[in-house]
Amino acid sequence: MKLLMVLLLLFPYLTRVADNDYPDKEMDAIRANYIKAVSDKKLCKAMLVQLHTKNGNSVYLAYRGAFKTIWASHAINPIVKLNAFNKGKKDIENAVKENPDNIEIRFIRLSIQQNCPSFLGYNNEVAQDLQFIHENKNSITSTLLKNMIAKVIKKEIR
Length: 158
Prior knowledge:
The protein has helices at residues 2-18, 22-36, 41-52, 58-74, 78-98, 103-115, 126-136, 143-157. The protein is an all-alpha fold. Helix 5 (78-98) runs antiparallel to helix 6 (103-115).
C-alpha cells in the first residue's frame, strides 16, 4: 500500500521525466509545418502567430523568418509581399549571426535562398551553406531534419 502511495505521489514527476523530449516533438512539428506551409496559407499564418511568442532561441528566430518569407508567397499585394520577405530575411540573417554553426539555421537559409525569386538578390550564401551542411550533416539527430536536408541537397546537386 505504501508503495502504491509513493508511486501515485511520484507519478507527475515521472511523467515529466518521460516527456523530456517535448522540445524535440515541438521542433519536429515546426519542421513538418515548414514543409506544409508553402501550400497552406492558414497553417503558415498559424505558425507565424505561434513563433511570434518564441524568444531567445535562434532556431525559432530562423523558422519565424522562414515562415515570413513563405507568407510573402501567399500575399497578393506586392508591397505586403516584399515587406514580409524582407522581414523574414532579416530574421534569418539575425539567427545566422547569433548561431552561425547551427546546421538547422543554415539549412533554413539555404532552403529559402534556393526557392526565392532571383530578382530579390537573396542567394549569395547558397554555396557556403551547402558546403557547411555537407561537412556537418552527420551531427544531426532528428530524422525529420535529416530527411528535409537530404531533399534540399539532392535538389542542389541536380
